[in-house]
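Q: How do we represent a protein-ligand complex in a form that can be generated token by token?
A: Start from the inputs.
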Amino acid sequence: MSLLRPNIAAMQGYIPGFQPEDVASWIKLNTNENPYPPSPKVREAILAELGNNGASLRTYPSASSQKLREAAAELYGFDPSWIIMANGSDEVLNNLIRACAAEGEEVGYVYPSYSYYSTLAEIQGAIVCTYGLTDDFRIEAFPEQFQGKIFFLTTPNAPLGFAFPLSYIEEIARNCEGLLVIDEAYADFADANALELVRKYDNVVVTRTLSKSYALAGMRLGLAIARPEIIAALDKIRDHYNLDRLAQAACIASLRDQEYFRESCRRICETRQWFSNGLRAIGYSVIPSQANFIFATPPDRNGKRVYDSLYSRKILVRYFSDPLLSPGLRISMGTRAEMERTLAALTEIG
Ligand SMILES: *Cc1c(COP(=O)(O)O)cnc(C)c1O
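Then emit the structure tokens for the protein with pyridoxal-5'-phosphate bound:
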């Protein structure tokens, strides 16, 4: 007799992007990390929190992360009761499913998008329903009334990089009986976001992460914005010390340094534009991106060939073997110098 629940025994588990040991010898464009360091204030805040001998680590961190909620509330224009902080947005995605979808209930998301939703739903024993995309990037056959418990909408979409128009997201919110979770992991690189829908619709949650736009993937910091009833539920089920002391210090310092943040995002978007144009000039088709990566397809539609050629030059990008995505590659934006070398390599590879 198995000791495990059958759904756990049967599931495959999420496979994160490859993190090479000798990271410094690669141009690493495979997991949408930020090529620039976080604000210098982050290092200062972490060192200050540590003090001389690290004695602050003896005691538990704030369980409520109240100061972070206040900093985020001010930044996004909500009351702190509308915000919950998380150990990466992955944690809050997990807790949203745990809060809303019981065994046998339906969880929906768009394919392709973030496959971790599916892993989380499988852990719950929920039923996963995926919806494809039409050629003009709308959800294929989205029901007039989605009756599942929770629907995840990643916008800007990963791995394709396009963003759904706000009016369309609003339509989805109205047609969704369950919770609509708008995963805005990349919204800081986009022209628009869906925060106003949180105020307008009871069932809308927006999730954000500091991993990409704030260059803090290594600290594990994310958040959700939703009505206080939903936030209170998430608050009950999270680990009570979900954010460690150093992460809390880093979070406040980083959210407060908006000037640094905006400049870092601006440079990434500028590089994205330059690199997209450069790829188009050598015959690639590139989906216009609102994120810190692009999805690009070479003229022979052989993503694996180009992936391997880049790999042998120590440039790491993301290839997906799925037939829908295998013609192309997802390429994160590095520094301008890294992208110049990548474009030169791609020109040579042909
Ligand atoms: C990176 C990413 C996340 C996870 O963010 P963390 O805060 O690092 O856990 C969630 N959703 C999408 C779509 C992402 O790309």
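Residues 245 and 255 are 16 Å apart (CA to CA). The chain has a mean pLDDT of 97.
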